[in-house]
Amino acid sequence: MLKIHAIGNLTADPSIRTNNVTGATYAILRIASDRRYRDRNGDKLTDFVSVKVRSPLAERCAEYLKKSDKIAAYGDFETIVTNGANSGFLIKAHEIEFLTPRKREESEQMVDPLAIPELPEGLEEMLEGDEE
Hints:
- By secondary structure, the protein is α+β, with helices and mostly antiparallel strands.
- It has helices spanning 57-64, 104-109, 123-129; strands spanning 3-10, 17-18, 25-38, 44-54, 70-82, 85-98.
């Protein structure tokens, strides 16, 4: 099995699709990545790669990602066969890493998973009484 890791920017907002046979949801993300070098004319070269993600990862991508966000996709390399001939490939992603930092306003709206909730009134005194 061939594993692949690709980093690039989304070319469009993710959208959820449904498999007509199984009813499973998925999304096809298209990423673009510039090469480190240019062609003989000095033009920038860009590669485009399709990434398939399935539920629940597809829903998270649709909720949090937008066009131009940078992602890293990790998964299996799959050849696409059309009319009996290889017509391309895609990455069947098992993991997507969101690389674009969140804006400050979005970060402030998120819940801090490490925040300790306040104890209900009177519970702190009850817990202190147990130490004796």
